[in-house]
Amino acid sequence: MASEGILLGMGNPLLDISAVVDDEFLQKYNIKLNDAILAEEHHLPMYDELASKHNVDYIAGGATQNSIRVAQWMLQIPGATSYMGCIGKDKFGGEMKKNVKEAGVNAHYYEDETAPTGTCAVCVVGGERSLIANLSAANCYKSDHLKRPENWKLVEKAQYIYIAGFFLTVSPESILLVAEHAAANYKVFLMNLSAPFICEFFRDAQDKVFPYVDYIFGNETEARTFSRVRGWETDNVEEIALKISALPKASGTHKRITVITQGSDPVVVAEDGKVRLFPVILLPKEKLVDTNGAGDAFVGGFLSQLVKEKSINDCIRAGCYAANAIIQRSGCTYPEKPDFK
């Protein structure tokens, strides 16, 4: 049975500012649908424009935090999950703490005195989304916070540790500390490719951590970018998944399992030199509200069964269930109770 603190996430906590926009808005800020990028100078006015001219939802977000919240929702066991990341000492930080506490996650935030809480503009057009993250305080996480006894205790308690690739841009040192701890203590360490730009521009940091990764998640675009950056000369997602699972590992305790989602196409799972395909739950177009958080929710659902030591089949089923529930709502939100069987 999953116990208190069994699952730990570390990442960039962002307050999602989610709104339905139009194509003109996308063009104005030069953003593409189904993309995730870091905000540049010309994007910065967007946050105020969204808040003042659109009907916005504020939701505790950031990829890892989303997955941990969804896993907590699926598990329905108080305090089964914990989370670390950096927020500012401000109104948005207070909003985040309240939101995450209500979700039942045991969050130990590092609170930065100088930078505002990070935000993510979630621009939705026709159910598809574009994410523009302004990391601010999330960028200030320090491994000193991780090393504090009360925080390192969360690491020691956890049997499963999940970190999205986005955290490679902030604190690769913290990731390596927990990855090495997981390998030395026979724990399960999981990561996500997270975005094409991570695979392209943070390859060195990604390569250092990869030997410790027991489960790697991603979508088809990220997998193809990962392949291209490594000169693999294949666009075939199944081949790429196999190649990723065969990359060298630092510890032989666990094999590597690669899980690649492909929107409404089957989920690709590669392990032991074999590929399996799992169909997703198809949703009629009129029920689709917002794809934001679908990938994070899939991982959260998957983790909720993995920590109970269920089969890969059950983990994928739970992932598909959670993703399906979340795309029928605005932002990464969910009904009060899951009805996953």
Automatic annotation (TrEMBL):
Broad class of enzyme this protein falls into: transferase
Keywords from the named record: ATP-binding, Host-virus interaction, Kinase, Magnesium, Nucleotide-binding, Purine salvage, Transferase
Gene Ontology BP term (one): AMP salvage
Catalysed reactions, as listed in the record: adenosine + ATP = AMP + ADP + H(+)
Pathway, per record: Purine metabolism; AMP biosynthesis via salvage pathway; AMP from adenosine: step 1/1
Domain (Carbohydrate kinase PfkB): residue spans on this chain: 28-335
Gene Ontology molecular-function annotations: adenosine kinase activity; ATP binding
Enzyme Commission number: 2.7.1.20
Active site, per annotation: D296 (proton acceptor)
Cofactor requirement: Mg(2+)
Entry similarity comment: Belongs to the carbohydrate kinase PfkB family.
PANTHER family in the record: ADENOSINE KINASE (PTHR45769)
Function (record text): ATP dependent phosphorylation of adenosine and other related nucleoside analogs to monophosphate derivatives. Essential to sustain methyl recycling.
Protein name (database record): Adenosine kinase
